[in-house]
Amino acid sequence: MSTLPIEAIKNRSDRHPKPSDIKFQYGTAGFRTLGSTLSSVLFRVGVLAALRSKRLDGKIIGVMVTASHNPEPDNGVKLVDPRGEMLESSWEAHATALANAPNSDAFVAAVDELVKTAKIDLSKPARVVYARDTRPTGPELVAALKDGLEAMKAEYRDAGVTTTPVLHYLVRTVNTKGTKDSYGEDTEEGYLTKLSDAFKKLLAGKPTPPPLLIDCANGVGALMAEKFKSYLGDAFTINLVNADIHTPGALNSACGADFVKVNQKLPPSITLQPGQRACSLDGDADRIIYYYADERGQFHMLDGDKITALVASFIVELVKAAGLDEQIKVGVIQTAYANGSSTKYLSARLPVKCVPTGVKHLHHAAEQYDVGVYFEANGHGTVLFSPAAHELISSHNPSTPTQSTALVNLGNVIDVINQTVGDALSDAFLVESVLAHKSYSGVEWDSLYSDLPNRLVKVVVGDRNAFETEDAERRLVSPPGLQAKINELVGRYEGGRSFVRPSGTEDVVRVYAEAVARPQADGDIPSSCLLSVHSWFLSRLELAFRVAGLVYDEAGGDPLQRPKEFI
Ligand code: G16
């Protein structure tokens, strides 16, 4: 009977002391904070990943070291379960508990406790694959992770510097290798080949799409996009911008998907010609935001909601053309951030479900459909085909040439999609395939529906955990009284909708607001408004409305008609 290697864990743990003043939390996408403070967390995640693998009979577990869209000094780590999905939520609490043990003795005790409560058979093998993005703190954090893996005598594979979606792909392919569920070759080359082959097949016989400008956020997506170039050949041209992974401070700085989505404007480094289409990845290439310039050169954003509308409609059409619309039902998953217009457009056509922020929630909800299409408004998402849908598509006997073509296209759509997690480059290939099939430019795609004007702002608060939500984060239950004030404020605007939630990846609270109104000038809230947490917070909410152009500025009048408590 195997036992825990207590001495090895303790000795190595002493090299990675926990900072006494930080409380770590496994949040929306794992642990995320200043990279320089994360050594103890990475060591402990190494131990935890080994235990998770043992608990799952030696299946390979993934560990990704990244802080995605966060600023460069941040870093983070998340665990990937055997099918390439996010860590099972019940283990998030174990991760948080292990990360916060104050010292090595307490850590060993916590590990021992976990082994008992989770009934982990320590004689099982432990296998882990890990990767990191381009952040400067990455190498040091990976060294701490390896210390944890070695303390547990885990077998590990270093996938090097690569994107989050590639790591997810590797986990799934290793675990399904040689089985009937094989997901592909378990190498980066296997990934590049699988996606590019399917994409080229989808483009075959269609006019070659115009070259696509890709903003790589100066992150690891640049490396992968560069590799794709030779796999795509003449079938599709990608031109990379913000592909500088070496200049300190460049990562996610004034570029990338989050910049474009939040600011609703082009990165200053990009100029588009009228009619040109482009897209931005985030720092680890699991999110994508599209945009284009109209004939007057004006910028228009095509976010995750627009991707959902485009892709879901296309899949529904293919399923129907294949004669499978009775058997295969397509559903859509969104979060509270989905623009009200997108929800209206999609709900008229398909079942739509709203879940809390975080791909883990969307992913699980999408698994309930034969085909589940999910994209967060921020561009993070994918499409899941159930095993039954896979089976039907691959075994259905077409009775007409139209059905046959639709089935072939569905098979290629399945292969071009990285079903393990949101994957910016896979999503770009999917989008370009749909546009090519429908002969759409950005304008036609954009005209599926018109976004309600909206704004998303970050608010730094003393304790974001004081903000508790319900109803898929659409309502605050705490601090008491705040939701009533939000309701009162929102009620003043036609089609007004707003919600407030604590971020799971940054130490901030996010405020979203939308309404039916015309855009107009930005404005500031005077500092005299910042009287109390509530009024300060509501002033930011009002600012969100104002910046979104949801408040009319009548000449000479008080533009905000600010409630008394703000004055
Ligand atoms: C992560 C999650 C996303 C989430 C985003 C923002 O993205 O994977 O699902 O939408 O964080 O979350 P929050 O508003 O809680 O900070 P990424 O791309 O940063 O890994």
Automatic annotation (TrEMBL):
It comes from Rhizopogon vesiculosus. Residues 484-518 form the Alpha-D-phosphohexomutase C-terminal domain. Residues 61-97, 115-178 form the Alpha-D-phosphohexomutase alpha/beta/alpha domain. The active site is at S68 (phosphoserine intermediate). It comes from the Eukaryota. PROSITE patterns: PGM_PMM. This is Phosphoacetylglucosamine mutase. Catalyzes the conversion of GlcNAc-6-P into GlcNAc-1-P during the synthesis of uridine diphosphate/UDP-GlcNAc, which is a biosynthetic precursor of chitin and also supplies the amino sugars for N-linked oligosaccharides of glycoproteins. Binds 1 Mg(2+) ion per subunit. GO terms for molecular function: magnesium ion binding; phosphoacetylglucosamine mutase activity. PANTHER family: PHOSPHOACETYLGLUCOSAMINE MUTASE. Keywords: Carbohydrate metabolism, Cell wall biogenesis/degradation, Isomerase, Magnesium, Metal-binding, Phosphoprotein. The keyword Metal-binding applies. SUPFAM superfamilies: Phosphoglucomutase, C-terminal domain (SSF55957), Phosphoglucomutase, first 3 domains (SSF53738). The lineage of its organism: Eukaryota, Fungi, Dikarya, Basidiomycota, Agaricomycotina. Residues 206-289, 303-440 form the Phosphoacetylglucosamine mutase AMG1 domain.
